[in-house]
Amino acid sequence: MHDKNEARFWRGLGIAILVGGALPMAWAWRGQLTERLTPSTTPQVRDVASFGSESDWIRPDEIAVQFKPGAKPDSNAFASLSKTLGGSLAWNSVSGGETGIARLTLPFGTDVRTKLAQLNADPRVEAADVVHLYRLPQNEMVSTGVASSTPIANDENEPDKGKFKPNDPRYSEQWNFKMVNAEEAWAKARGKGAIVAVIDTGVAYADTKKGKIARDFKNTKFAPGYDFVAKDALPNDDQGHGTHVAGTIAESTNNDEGVAGLAFEATVMPLKVLSASGSGTSADIADAIRWAADHGANVINMSLGSPYPDKLMGSACEYAKKKGVVIICAAGNSGREGVGYPAAYKDCVAVSAVGPSGELSFYSSWGKEVAIAAPGGDTKAGGEAGAILQNTVFDGKDDYFGFQGTSMASPHVAAVAALVVSTGIKDPDEIRAVLQKSAKSKGTPKKYGAGVLDAAAAVTLAEKTHADGVARFYVTLGLFAGCAFIGVIRKRQGPLSGGYPFWGTAAIAFGFLFPDWLVGYLGMTSEANLIGHSVLVPGILLMLGAKNSQERRLLGWVAFGLSAHLGWEFLRGTSPFGAEIGFWQFTPWAISNTVVGAGMLLAGLHAKRE
Hints:
Layout: H1 2-37, E1 58-67, H2 75-85, E2 88-91, H3 96-99, E3 101-105, H4 112-121, E4 125-135, H5 175-179, H6 182-186, E5 195-200, E6 221-222, E7 226-227, H7 241-250, E8 267-272, E9 279-281, H8 282-294, E10 299-302, H9 311-322, E11 326-330, E12 348-354, E13 370-375, H10 379-382, E14 388-394, E15 397-403, H11 406-422, H12 428-437, H13 445-448, H14 455-490, H15 502-522, H16 528-532, H17 536-544, H18 549-572, H19 583-605
Parallel strand pairs: 5-8, 5-10, 6-8, 7-8, 10-11, 11-12, 12-13
Antiparallel strand pairs: 1-3, 1-4, 2-3, 4-9, 14-15
C-alpha cells in the first residue's frame, strides 16, 4: 500500500510539474507563436512604388557572386568561368580574394536568369544575384548649421553625481543625447575597446590626397578602412553623410570644441561604399560587411537602404553575425509601413526614428522588423533645433550641421551597442537583447520596437548581466569547495549519504549553470532557452525515468539549481530572453517554475530511502 501511495504521489507531482511549467511557458511563447501563425502583410519588395521603377534599383547587366570559403577560384578558373558564362568575371575589390566576392559583367541583352541559374548550380558558389543599388534614405534634410536660438537646456543646476558632462560648447544643443540619458551612461562606459564599422559615404578621418580630417575628429580613434568605390585604402568622405553618422558614434568629446559623440572612446572603422551621389552597389556593401567582420569590428552601422533584398547582402549579414558582429541599420525614410533592406534582414537590428518629443518622426519607416527606436530628428515638430547636430564636411564646408533621418537614429543605437561591448558583452544576440530590454517602452511595437533607446539603462543592464554570469560561476565553485571541505571534516564516504554529498552538489551546480551554458551555445534569442531554464525537463525525467529515491533526490537537486538560477535572474532583472518575452509573460513563468522546483526538492528530500 505504501509503494502504491508513493507512486500516486510521484504521478501527481509529475502532473503538477507539467501544468505548472507548461502553461506559463505557453503564455510566454504566445506572442511569438501568434506572429508566426499570422500571415505577413509586408511584401518582400518594400513599398517599391514610392522609390521609382525596378530599373532604378537593379543593374541587369551585372551579377555579383559570392564564392564559398575554400572554393575561391584562381585566375585560370576565372578565365574559364568567364568564357563559360559569356562575360567578364573579376574580383569586386582588392579584398575580393579574401571575402570571395566577384562581379560578372555581361554583354547587353544577355539572359541574366540563365546565367544566375548556371552560377547558383556551381558547387563553388554560395550565392549569386543581380547587382542591386543601395542609397542614402530619402527625405533627409540639412539645416544651415547655425546654432539654435533656443538650445535645449543642459540642466546646469542638476547635481553631477553619477553623471559625466562634456565641455563641448555646443553640447547643450544635443537634445538627443539627453533623451537617451547619455550623461549617466558616460559615468560608467564610453566605448573603450569597441570597434564600430561605419559603412557609408566614407568619413573625413585623416588628411590624405582625397580630403582632410573634419575639425572635431582630431581626437577620435580610427581603425584602417577601405574605399570600395575607388578600390583603395583611403575611405575619405566626399558627400558628408558618413562623417555625420560617425560623429554621432564617436566625434571627439570633452575637447572644448563643437559637440559630443555618444561612444567617444570607441574606434571608428570607415568603409566607403556610397559615392558622392549617395549611391552604391550590393556587391560593394556585401564586400564591406565581410571585410569589417574579418578585421575585428564589433558593431556595424549601415544608414543606407533599398526596397529590394539581395542574396549576397543577406549572406554577408549572416556571416558577420556568426563572426560576432551586431549589425545596426536605418529602417528607412518612407514615412509609412515597410522596412527597407538591409534593416529588414533577420540578422540586423532595424531602427526607427523619433523627434524631440519622443514620438515617431514624420518620415520614419516602420513595420514588424523594427527592433528599437532612437533620436533621428524632426524639424517639422521641433524646427531647426529638432535636427541631429554633428560635425561634417558638407558642400565643401567643414562645420556643424543638423541632419534628420533614420540614418541619424541608427548610429545612436550603434554607439550604445559599442558602450555595451565595452562592458564585456560581445555576443550579437546578447547585445540586441540588452538594447531592447533596457529601452523605454513606447507602445506600438511596429513603430517603436521594444521602445526608445536608453543608453544609461543599457549600460547598467549590460554590467549586471556580465557580472552575474561570473558571479554564478564562483558561487558554484564555492559550493564544490564547501562540499569537499565538509566531506573531509565529516569523512563522508557514500556519494548519496546525508549532509551535502558530492553528487547532490554536482546536481545543484548543473541546474544552476546549465542555463548559462545553453545561452552561450544557442544565443539570447533562441526560444529553446525557455525549455533550458524550466523545471519541466528534470520534472518529466523524475516522473518517467526515476527508478528509486536516490535518483529522485538528485533530480530534485537539479530542479533546485534551476530554481535558484531563475530566482537570481528574476530578482536581478537579467532574464536571458529577448524583448519579445515581456514582464507579464516572464513573471508567471518564472514564479511557477521556481515554486515547482522547490516542491520537487522537498519531495525528493522526503522520498522513501531505499
